[in-house]
Specification:
Blueprint: H1 3-10, H2 14-22, H3 29-42, H4 48-55, E1 60-64, H5 74-90, E2 94-98, H6 103-116, E3 121-125, H7 133-139, E4 144-147, E5 161-164, H8 166-179, E6 185-189, H9 195-210, E7 219-221, H10 226-237, E8 245-248, H11 251-263, E9 279-283, H12 287-292, E10 295-298, H13 301-316, H14 320-323, E11 332-335, E12 338-340
Parallel strand pairs: 1-2, 1-3, 3-4, 4-5, 5-11, 6-7, 6-8, 8-9, 9-10
Antiparallel strand pairs: 10-12
Domain HTH lacI-type: 1-55
Keywords: DNA-binding, Transcription, Transcription regulation
Protein name: DNA-binding LacI/PurR family transcriptional regulator
């Protein structure tokens, strides 16, 4: 089945069919509908190879797939990828996945993809201080957007990015704990230097200070994981002035903190049992949080993915006014998370 067959069936020119497929805004609604009905009736499918030769576009957006890690927090990236794939399809794009273990190996992977598949654009994840990937792409004038803020950037315009306000999420969680009577609210997060981790810690610290509570002695830093979260929580719960609530930078840490609380008779259980309540709140609202009754901060991952694709679509379509090479506000999207309350708090 060819474009000529569709044109003959719809009683229009080949150019009109091409416009319906590639530039539908140029075709009157009645004609466009008739052509689409013919495409459906004949089962016509446009040749991607031919379209790429004609337009110079592969209709591919490439992004890295993250390792599974502990099987808890890794599911967050899976949800983002699902939203990215679904949103990209709505704009006529497909998502191309690749793997990499650090910045330099990702740059090498991107270079290989450009030679083999010529993706139109890239979505970078896991932004961090000293991130060299963005400069590499910008120097080559390759369209890209990051899911995550540029935590440290050289002078000059910022690149397009989408992120979730982690500080706002931990602030909301801290206010909830304050409202329920807690004052000894501990925070378990990642070592200083992680942009995401520092942001989440800042929301907790500022909210406690605003409530007249000194956060000194209530902060523990550790690598991410259930076992490390349990150990850090134990330090806070066994202190001379123990914490009565624990706010964690991830659900993995929070799950470990809940184990520590339960072993001291203050945890919660899905069946409603447990001793003196020790509130625990995580971050990311993973499936583990939902299954165990863990209160957690939820990120709008589908919305974040949709924003990434929408930004790229505008850039690729040459809408410089809204795509904003000048780093205008339309290229910087900061989304708000929400606190999902369950038994643990």
């Amino acid at each position: 089945m060819t474009i000529t067959d569709v044109a003959r069936h719809a009683k229009v020119s080949r150019q009109t069919v091409s416009n319906v497929i590639n530039a539908p805004e140029l075709v009157r609604e009645g004609t466009r509908r008739r052509v689409l009905e013919s495409i459906e009736a004949l089962g016509y499918r446009a040749s991607q190879a031919a379209r790429q030769m004609r337009t110079g576009r592969s209709r591919l957006i490439a992004t890295r797939i993250e390792p599974a890690e502990d099987g808890i927090n890794g599911t967050i990236h899976d949800r983002f990828l699902h939203g990215l794939t679904e949103s990209a399809a709505g704009f006529g794009y497909r998502v191309l996945l690749y793997t990499a273990h650090d910045d330099q190996s990702e740059i090498a992977a991107v270079d290989d993809l450009l030679a083999a598949y010529e993706p139109d654009a890239f979505v970078l994840t896991g932004t961090h201080h000293g991130d060299v990937r963005t400069a590499w792409l910008a120097e080559r004038r390759l369209p890209f957007v990051t899911f995550g803020r540029p935590w440290s950037m050289p002078e000059g315009p910022s690149h397009p990015w989408v992120d979730v306000d982690g500080a706002a999420g931990t602030a909301a969680a801290t206010r909830h704990l304050l409202d329920t009577g807690h004052r000894r609210i501990g925070f378990i997060g990642w070592p200083t230097g992680s942009g995401v981790g520092d942001d989440r810690r800042a929301g907790w610290a500022r909210t406690l200070a605003a409530a007249g509570v000194d956060p000194a002695g209530l902060d523990r830093t550790t690598d991410d994981g259930v076992a490390t979260g349990e150990k850090a929580a134990g330090d806070l719960l066994d202190a001379d002035r123990p914490a009565t609530a624990l706010l964690c930078a991830s659900d993995s840490l929070a799950l470990g903190a809940s184990h520590a609380a339960l072993s001291r008779g203050g945890g919660w259980r899905a069946d409603g049992g447990g001793g003196t309540p020790i509130a625990v709140i995580g971050f990311d609202d993973t499936s583990v949080a939902r299954a165990t009754g863990l209160t957690s901060v939820s990120q709008p991952l589908s919305e974040a993915a949709a924003c990434c694709v929408a930004l790229l679509a505008r850039i690729l379509d040459g809408d410089e006014a809204s795509a904003g090479e000048d780093g205008s506000a339309t290229t910087r999207v900061l989304l708000q998370p929400s606190l999902v309350r369950r038994q643990s708090a």
